[in-house]
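Worked example 3 (structure in, sequence out).
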């Protein structure tokens, strides 16, 4: 008997990513995490993750000669993450950062 026959709310299946090799990745240089919705018990159910890109201004001053104080952030993607999804993302990001630092260290030698 497969696990989902016992409990239809819980089952295990292999996730297979279909990554398009021709799809261009978006450049992200801005990240915002903020609290998500709270459940009926008042507990936070997750966080919102927003990824964006800011193009530096072509000119450091506006038409009036004053310094530019704001630049628009182009939203690249917005996501709601459950605590488990956030933990998975944090773990994967930490592993990727460690591999990247190790690779950069080997190139600097």
């Amino acid at each position: 008997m497969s696990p989902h026959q016992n409990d239809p709310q819980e089952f295990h299946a292999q996730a297979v990513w279909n990554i398009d090799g021709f799809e261009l990745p978006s450049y992200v240089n801005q990240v915002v995490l903020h609290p998500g919705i709270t459940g009926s018990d008042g507990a936070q159910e997750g966080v919102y993750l927003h990824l964006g890109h800011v193009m530096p201004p072509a000119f450091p001053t506006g038409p009036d000669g004053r310094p530019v104080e704001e630049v628009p952030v182009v939203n690249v993607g917005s996501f709601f993450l459950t605590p488990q999804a956030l933990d998975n993302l944090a773990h994967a990001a930490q592993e990727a950062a460690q591999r990247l630092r190790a690779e950069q260290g080997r190139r600097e030698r």
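Notes: The radius of gyration is 21 Å. Residues 26-108 form one domain.
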